[in-house]
């Protein structure tokens, strides 16, 4: 925000100066006064804006403050617009816009005025005014790049032509035959009015800021839109003049694309250079055929075919122009002196077109005269363009690294999508009933969509997201000229040809016109031929390839001359430079050439625009390479070495020459497969030449003792050399490495000897390093001898012996260095001791926390140890001073200081542990506070010893000395904190306050370590990181509670807990952030939010400290604010940790995950039941004639279909549940656990009911088939399946989108279950009915026996009715009990 304020202030200062300059240069006093007044309003508004922004920063969560800020920003934007409108020429554009708006009101009249002209006259007027308006649009485009007066004249002319065109269009609308055609004409006129307004706005914007990003592209798109809108109207209105409208449309299209050739410094499309050539070839072929068709159809009088040929020719000419513009851009940008641009984050032209299309479609939607088909067409346009905008926002948010822009794109896409969804609902209602009420709802729904799209378009026009145009050099512009001239000539001659053809088709018997047509056809053909020739001749990289070929050929000739001189022993020695410098120059040049091989190969195969740049770089390295090779050869003593070096340099130059020829042939054409093979072969040869030359240079370096820059350990090199005896070809490079290692050792040994204490140590260092040097010389000599004669066994033994001697000498050098490095060794020993003390204190703190740290004797008290602690701490301070001074003194003093400090910290730790134990286990928190204080001292001493070791012997202004001083300050601070803590132990009133102060200081030190650039040694998992953040939430709650209670015990407990959880979180955060697989962006977020969380927690503890000192109600209320900030940072940390895990991670406690698991489990159990049914077979029965399917088989088939259907149902429910999570209707971690969890539980219970009911059905079917169950049990089981299926559908419908695919599949699966259940019920009922019919009742004939039979039947009926009633009551009780456990969704449905 600070940077933004500074930029705003600077911009306002520049605005004030510019406003005064414009006012001074304006002749009209009123205009000058208006300019100054508007600038003053901007200044006043900006002052208020900065003030409101400051208030918003103070209270970021205040919605009222944010609202005021937005209002003030909007006011400043309006003031800026008013200020811009006062510029010269802007008022004229505004006046033109106003005139267009006034003229467009004619389109709002309810009835079209009666026609005053004939159809032919009206049509002629419309064509003429359309041509004038199109020409005026082109003039506005050109004038926007000129002076303000030119723009004023052009915009005035454009508004006049628009008024005349509008009158001609309204006159033409009066001649339409139907109301629908009339509405279409008026609708097209409205579209032209909107496009015209956008053209003037774009021209106005470009004239104000010619360098604005995307301004030229938006202007060209607006002009193209005007042309397209005019063509649509002409196509609609000129049906009575065949052939003419096609010619007029073609002429307008050619005029619109002519602007692509004005300043081709931006890409026209995505075509590569060779795609442009292919496009030109194809389009020229199509154009030739269509021109022949135009001539032929003029002769035969076939006017419809003539119109088709004209349309085809127009498209071909536009394609030729676009290809020519793209090719010229690629030619210009491929020049080595040009700078390529880069693609923007979004395409503002696409956004502007979509915005205009959506606005036009919304106008048609709310137009009372729109037919149902027009409404549906407009709805389709809205859906298409809003979908494209949302996709563009999604891509932009994924590409940008700016978190603010990322969020804005996502939010804008959501607003567009939501407003589109609302509009679509109103359109559906309107489609069903075209009433005024529905149309008004539709009009209201369009307003939010238009606003959202406008806001998105404005945001996308931000210069930050714009494409950066290429900077074409003077040479690049000159190379573009032939292509542009040919393309312009083609457009001019094509325009004349189409005008001639237009008149010829009306009067085909005019010989002079035929002669003109033939002349223009030849001119078009010649222009296209010259265009193709120019594109081929100006192919990117060809000129650079030719220049590089000439340069390298010259180098080869020079090397040949030098080789002849070397053969005749007449090569003059170069004395102006050393051999070492020539060696370094040559190796550097060869390295750079080697690095360019792959980029040149890639460019030659498919990146034509980069070929020239890479070839020029390659050629620039060959001149110094050739010069260094000749100079080095002149200084070599051996003739064979000279010839080898020159021959290999020549080989490299020749392989580069072959590479250039292959690259020129390929030219960046991805389709030139034959050239690609040659490029690959040349690439391999050039790599081999580079490798051979590098081997020769390394060998030469090893023999003459030149340090090649290869610095590794000598001992490691010795080991490699002895292992390489079986491969003598590697000895040259290893010897070179040994030489380089010794050079570095000799340099450092000289410095160590000069600074060693006492002087005898320095003498010993020099002696041992010299002995090592003699051993290295012998080793390198033996390596060279073995390389010359690899089979010599004696030389092999001598090499191995030499390596052993060098290894011994290395150990002797290390020994003497350690003897002269007594202080540093003492620091290392002391640091190790301190590390052990810190670990021991950590264990003691664990015992204290568990209330198990007891005093040695019952009479022991803290007062007995207080003085010892204070005395030992003061002694440690003295040791600290000695350590700091010892870094600048000798090794002896440093060693004594390090040993003394290690001893003192051990003593201090022991007495503090005794003091803590004397406090007793009844007060563990105080024990922990005291132990933490001495642990902080030990940590600081460890850091101080490390800094002392690094700073020993360094100059006073060295950076390590500043680190030493910083570590000393921390040490003193922690010792002071320990002393205060010791004094406060027996003072209960200040004990908590002191503990909190120490904790705050400790957390600050931990944060400093966290913010350092050091990479952690260990790594941890994101799960462990999340676990560590949970402690912060607990500690925050305890801190707030301690602040509210103000009790010292609570404060001490909070201080101890805070210290631990923050330290653990910071450690886990850094270890997880640097874990493998974590991206740079996520790592940065983790470190940022870790810092924010810690700072927020420090501020919370500081506020608790304030509350302890001044415990007012207002102070305590602020605790909640600080705790919320910590909670917000913890939330961001958890989200970052989840991002580290990737998208596959799920929370096993998430209700939606539990729901999906249960659903899949239910599906598995149903499938298992279905497999069990598959194995069942009906009882074997005697064969009966004329029965195709018995009852048992019907039961099994129906049960199998139900099981299959319920399996599909549960899987569909699982898919619907996943879809809801993806749509955000159910969170993967629900914000409202009761809401989403309740829905998930409803789905779980419903899935379980389906699985249980299906299992019961399978058992009933099995029992029925085996004769152990009745048909009634089977019917009941089937009905239970249907009921549980309905409940599952209800549970899923609660939040699901009814039109989603998953919901449709779920509904279909539910219907399948219901049908299968119904079929089973019908089959069982039919069987029961047939069984009842088959039972014959035998009626007794005797009177008494008949009476008894009736009484028995009535008794059985009453018993059955009583059993039925009891069964009903039992069922009701079961349902009531189950109802209590149903989720709310299922309860409401049953109600």
Q: Summed up, what is this model?
A:
The protein is mainly α and 1391 residues long. The longest helix is centred in the last third of the chain and has 37 residues, at 1343-1379.
Could you please describe the fold and organization of this structure?
With 1391 residues, this protein is mainly α. Helix 8 runs parallel beside helix 12, helix 9 packs antiparallel against helix 16 (474-506) and helix 31 runs antiparallel to helix 32. The model is unreliable at 702-713, 1177-1189 and 1227-1239 (pLDDT under 50). It is built from 43 helices and no strands.
What keyword list fits this structure?
1391 residues, mainly alpha
Structural class: mainly alpha
- Mean pLDDT score: 78
Q: Determine Rg (CA atoms, Å).
A: 45 Å
Strand content: under 5%
Strand segment tally: 0
Q: Extract low-pLDDT stretches.
A: 702-713, 1177-1189, 1227-1239
Total of helices: 43
Largest beta sheet, briefly?
none
Helical content class: over 70%
How would the global form be characterised?
Answer: globular
How far is it from the N-terminal to the C-terminal residue, by CA?
57 Å
GO cellular component, one term: cytoplasm
Subcellular location: Cytoplasm
Domain I/LWEQ: 1143-1382
Main location: cytoplasm
